[in-house]
Write a structure and sequence with these properties.
The complex is a heterodimer of chains A (about 260) and B (about 400).
Chain A: E1 5-12, E2 15-22, E3 27-31, H1 42-47, E4 52-56, H2 73-87, E5 93-97, H3 99-110, E6 117-121, H4 143-146, H5 161-179, E7 199-204, H6 212-220, E8 226-230, H7 237-240, H8 242-254
Helix pairs in contact in A: 2-3
Chain B: E1 2-6, H1 36-55, E2 60-63, H2 77-85, E3 92-99, H3 107-119, E4 124-129, H4 133-138, H5 146-162, E5 167-170, E6 175-179, E7 193-197, H6 201-210, E8 214-216, H7 221-237, E9 248-256, H8 260-278, H9 283-286, H10 294-304, H11 313-318, E10 322-325, H12 327-341, E11 345-349, H13 357-370
Parallel strand pairs in B: 1-2, 1-11, 2-3, 3-4, 4-7, 7-8, 8-9, 9-10, 9-11
Antiparallel strand pairs in B: 5-6
Helix pairs in contact in B: 1-13, 2-3, 3-5, 6-7
Amino acid sequence: MPAAHEKRTIDVRGYQVLVGIGGNGPPLLYLHGFGDHDSWLELHERLARSFTVYVPRHPGFAGTPLPDWFQTAEDLAFHYVDLLSEIGVEHPIVVGSSLGGWIATELAIIRPALPRRLILVGALGLQPKNPPPDIFIMEPDEDLPFLFAAPRDAPAASGDAAEAFVGRWENLIPVARLMWQRPYDAKLPHRLHHVTAPTLVIWGGKDRFLPPSHGEMLAAKIAGARHKQIDGAGHLVALEQPSRLAEAVIAFAAEA
Amino acid sequence: MELFFFHLMPWPEIPGNFRDEARSSWVVLSHSHYDPVLGNRLYNDYLDELEFAERVGFDAICVNEHHQNAYGLMPAPNIMAAALVRRTSRARIAVLGNGISLRDNPLRIAEEVAMLDVISGGRVISGFVRGIGCEYFSLGLDPTQSRERFQEAHDLITKAWTAADPFTWDGKHFHFRYVNVWPRPFQKPHPPIFCPSQGSSETIEWAAERGYPYVCTYTPIEALLYYYDRYRELAETRFSYHAGPEKFGVSAFVYVAEDEATAIEHARQHVKYFGERCFAIPLQMLIPPGYASTQSLRHLVGTRGTSGARFDFDFMVETGQTLFGTPEQVGERLTRLMERAGAGIFMGLFQFGDMSHARAMRNIELFANRVMPYLPRTRPIGVASGQTA
């Protein structure tokens, strides 16, 4: 039986945030990346069986305004501290995917006691050994297949080509703001020791954007963090292997 | 009308199969295709063409700025202008334009343009541009900040040229304790500012508000008319002035030959090279995320589709972007185009694509001798005293 979910607009210091909310249980904040930004996905449906899931949409996605204060992933981390305070959620499990993983990392640095647990999925943030491929230069139908282990399984744009181009382009605006110039935060190596939440780093075994070795490097820099690889997933684990990702999150949350 | 001679300085040896190795002749086509020995000849041929254009009577000669591409080899337009100011004495030198949002320090542009203006005795026209989307890839600049940086750089440069005293600038993108630009521009209050554009609604409004001459490049005539009408309407209703033909420029490829068949054959060849090799730019590179407003992007894909700009010969001719034919035909087509656009400035490209120097020189000469004398010429804008032809 599918868990019921609703979409609410929350006023966070004057900025209207669309949040998908559903399920029952302890709170879980899901911070999306590029490609998994729809407000309610199969993954959320699965997580909602065990948690009350909150899925806010980042500023700038889906044609929403790009506020002036939004310059870095750290700015978004403060934004989500404010959102959680607004909705009265104190110690959620924080799951961040890709760009959202970067934001979740910053959040766990500025508010170490906030996340009950931290789960970073294909997370950006740390400077990679090699520059990741430029998704901005890719053709509109090239990026999602690239971010999948099985390119044919990537969702294809439906309908009018012009509208599909514009829609993708709009979603890339906040992505460009975060990672056009430097797709990482050079300060992270000097700040990651502030992360005290129990942390699990999850990586797609066939991630061609950031290789699994990047996940191992990230896990090694967070005290006590573990690394788990999900084979049969590329960069967008949330879209490609939702059931295995949900299982991993549920199992990690249940650990003593 | 005023006649401006525009050069792009293209690389004429882009391989026909370059797409096998690169998705565009911009940003990613390897510089291993560049040959400095050929480059030496080209720069000198192209500069000769610009100097020749002054001698045969053009009102202005124009250079521009683009980076890391085979389309046009002028990453530093003020260097090209510097090469021209001491070799010319009458024509305006139009830098169309400097990419003022592309520099970390826009005051360098205030300084360089002021130098050019003083050396030339006030012959400089200063175009300000944001650069096309590719520039943001090539220079590692966030396209979502492009318009803000452009506007702030403009405000900073014009203030640096006009303020009575040194000042401090503490903006969002630029911060300078001491703004005190030496030398001062020769022209008062400063060199005329032109605004070349691709027709985004924000730029039209920005240019109309300031009364800056506005030039849409690579724009089909129907779209161009729509943009210029919008400028005129804004000038009239919002900013309370009449925008006459002196506010509008039209840019086109021009090819003149003694007989029409030769003109078609040659023009088609070079336009084809231009479209398929020089301007091979996918839309996501031309308009990266946040470079334009969503509204402007929608208008663009609505009128031109998602495959980038169209440059096939027939389309370029139909849409007023290529004028070819006998001298009589070109004169007639040019006059009609300018009347239709309500424009007073014609910016012609007489060398384009892989056109040889000899062919470009013949083209310029035929135009100068057989077309120019019959065109309705206006007095060149504000040429400094003692600088008459």
